What we know:
Blueprint: H1 3-13, H2 15-34, H3 39-67, H4 73-98, H5 105-113, H6 115-124, H7 132-137, H8 141-152, H9 160-178, H10 184-193, H11 195-213, H12 216-220, H13 223-229, H14 235-263, H15 265-289, H16 294-312, H17 315-326, H18 329-361, H19 364-383, H20 392-399, H21 410-413, H22 422-425, H23 432-439
Helix pairs in contact: 1-2, 1-3, 1-18, 2-3, 2-5, 2-6, 3-4, 3-17, 3-18, 4-5, 4-14, 4-17, 8-9, 8-23, 10-11, 11-17, 11-18, 14-16, 15-16, 15-19, 17-18
Amino acid sequence: MGGLFAGSVVDKFGRKGGILASSCIVLVSCILHSTATTKEQFFVARVLVGFAKALDISAVPTYLVELAPPSKRGFVAGLYWTCWLLGAIISSAVGYGARSIAGNWSWRLICLCMSGPASLCILLLAFIPESPRWLISKGREREGLAVLTRFHGGGDPNHPLVTAQFREIKETISYEQQNKFESYRAWWKTFVGLKSNRYRAFILVSLGIFEQTIGSSIITYYLSSVLNLAGVTSEKSQFAINLGQNCVAFTSALVGICLIDKLGRVKMLVGGTIFCAAVLACMAGLTAQQTDTAAGRNAIIAMVFLFQMGYASTWTPLSFSYCAEVLNFTIRAKGMAFYNIFTSSAGFINQYVIPIGLANIGWRFYIVGVCWNLFAATVIAFTYLETKGLSLEQIDKRFEGVPRDQLEDIIETYNGVKPISEAELGKIAIDPVATEISEGPNKN
């Protein structure tokens, strides 16, 4: 439900504004959680966390893809979901440690700990810039250019990539603002009315569903059921495996983000999906025939770790960042919120389907997953658009049907060697530092 309004908040108050709102909601939720004396209060607190997540998913991937230079965008944006795994490691350890505390504080402590990352996020917001595209869209060209100069030009405002991107962004946003939407209904009508946007919608919906159904939910949320099915019932052993597979997943995701800009998005998604299918097939065979032996149980545990390596190195860094890339500026924040609706809905269905499947058909449920993964890999391979090495505006042109080999060079098209004039920056300098950067060291 949070996805219905998250995009509008991020578009109106900025990407940093969306992150701030998300963190503040988490703090409110922490207070309600840790002081809850009724199930109703606890329930409301959980709902607030869901709203915060919707804002976060709409704001952060959007911010990262708009801030990062084209050559590093896959790496930077991939850090978003990768760092969720770091949070999973910390929360697993906190949860296990809190179990030794007697009484209600065993769970209240966990709820209080959620306030730590949110508070740190709020403090750090003062030290990071706003998205250059959002700044330029609000008429704050000098500030937008200052951010581009810092992150895309190494401090040189006359860098060809900086000047070309500035002009391209300004031209694109100017066109989009002339055709802006007066209401959410008008936005939706245009979103589904254009062929390029319907293509984007197909990617958002399918990727949102695939991301939740490739098999990660079985391995993460229902790891205990998987291990029970495999004959590993010791609580201590299950915790050690859970913590260990989260560590392996985090390490694998770090490796994956280093490969995104080299291998490409589509290749990694297809390869990761097929690898996960192969692991699920092995888990089916082992669970069917080898749970009575120590070697068989160890092999199933090894499959859990292998699955995390394949999934975390491909789907973890790409599931959110790829969606943010394929959306243009006008629909990016709302589109990410739209994506969150489908991925959350698929996760909601998983919550009820997976335990029923594992309980009723056992190891055969993995075979269902194998068939689904092969279907997903086929869809991705033949329908998804590769975005490797392209600027966000070039990606927009690809969705409009322009072949990759016919894309115009951004520096040549937007005269990147010509310094930006005062007329292009607007009349008022909002920030003296930004003005100094925009004028540059070489005024000739």
